[in-house]
Amino acid sequence: MFRAIVVDEGKPAEIREVDDDFLQPGEVTIDVEYSSINFKDGLALAGNAGVVRAFPLIPGIDLVGTVSASDSPRFAPGDRVLLNGDGIGEGRFGGLAERARVRADALIPLPVTVSASRAAAIGTAGFTAMIGVLAIERHGILPAAGDVLVTGAAGGVGSVAIALLAGRGYSVTASSGRAEEEGDYLRRLGAAHVIDRAEFSESGKPLQKARWAAAIDSVGSSTLANVLAQTIYGGVVVSCGLAQGADLPTTVMPFILRAVTLTGANSVQAPLALREQAWAALAAELDLSLLDSMTTTIGLADALETGSRILGGTVRGRTVVDVRR
Ligand SMILES: NC(=O)c1ccc[n+]([C@@H]2O[C@H](COP(=O)([O-])OP(=O)(O)OC[C@H]3O[C@@H](n4cnc5c(N)ncnc54)[C@H](OP(=O)(O)O)[C@@H]3O)[C@@H](O)[C@H]2O)c1
Question: With a 6 A CB cut-off, is 275 part of the ligand 1 pocket?
Answer without folding.
Answer: no
